[in-house]
Amino acid sequence: MEKPIIYSAVQPSGNLTIGNYVGAIRNWVNLQDSYDCFFSIADMHAITVRQEPAELRRRTLELAALYIACGVDPEKCVLYVQSQVPAHAALCWVLNTVTYVGEASRMTQFKDKSQKHADNINMGLMDYPVLMAADILLYRAAAVPVGADQKQHVELARDLAVRFNNRFGETFVVPEPLIFRGGAKIASLLEPTKKMSKSEENPNASVFLSDDRDTVIRKFKRAVTDSGSEVRYAEDKPGISNLLNIYCAFKGCTLAEAEKEFEGKGYGDFKIAVGETVADVIAPVQAEQKRLLSDKKELAAYLVSGRDRAAYAARKTLSKVYRKIGFWEA
Length: 330
Ligand code: TYM
Prior knowledge:
This protein is mainly α. The chain is built from 13 helices and 5 strands. The strands form 2 sheets. A 3-stranded parallel beta sheet has the order 1-2-3. The chain is globular. The chain starts with a strand and ends in a 5-residue tail after the last helix. Bound molecules: ligand 1.
């Protein structure tokens, strides 16, 4: 029997944070045996904000190496660079014609990014979720493992799939967002009501997967905490609650277990423990990423094979779409 299909991606738009790791990539690894997985490096999404070309190219390879270093098996999964498969842009164009400007302009991330990049509100920024829908629908994905911030985009992909199917007949699989509890919403260390982001300007607000042990521990030591002294998960303690979430996600324990472990201990001890736990998990990932980047041939071979497998699957869906909408094909 064919396995259900999973699709997900990360943009090579900055240094990846521990939020990207526990909210997304780490969960992919647990899915790769039970699903047919497609994981891309979303470089076409990345250029919706200005990128330095040489840096974008370097980050693309670094991200591919990171996927593998986190445990994504490039032989089991299809791992590729989005811009290498032209069908993404082609399907995005078709989907644009069933997307309303109103719904695209209501997307939370579009509104946030328009504010943040007020001097560069380009068409791509608004079209971003439609391209993401094209990514997902091209591969007939049943589920899309993402962090909570991408849920609205996956819901748009669902709406577009249903709308297209209603208008042109059964074509797309309607995807579900797959959001894992715990790591789905890692917050900034300095403003714990905001998400931890790779494009954050203050480097102390985010813990990057490339940070060395001392830096990781230092950042956690400086993390903003709340009044009081008890290590307890509570709505009015966003700082400590975020650190507890991070601790549990990296330690693999429950909130109750963590609270028990730190009963009677102060914030200081707890913050050091969080830092050490995170540093212990990311150190081997960094070492493996470094090894992979030292032999670009091996990495390129994985990406070429991934591109070919992705292009084959994508072309099949695109042909079906073209037939349905009345495009001529020989
Ligand atoms: P991106 O690159 O912003 O983030 C990649 C993944 O990391 C998750 N994430 C987080 N999870 C928990 N806590 C955080 N602080 C945190 N920050 C980020 C994101 O939810 C995401 O799962 N548009 C997507 C990339 C994309 C995509 C796709 C995803 C392009 N095409 C198709 C799924 C399917 C994005 O910008 O992710």
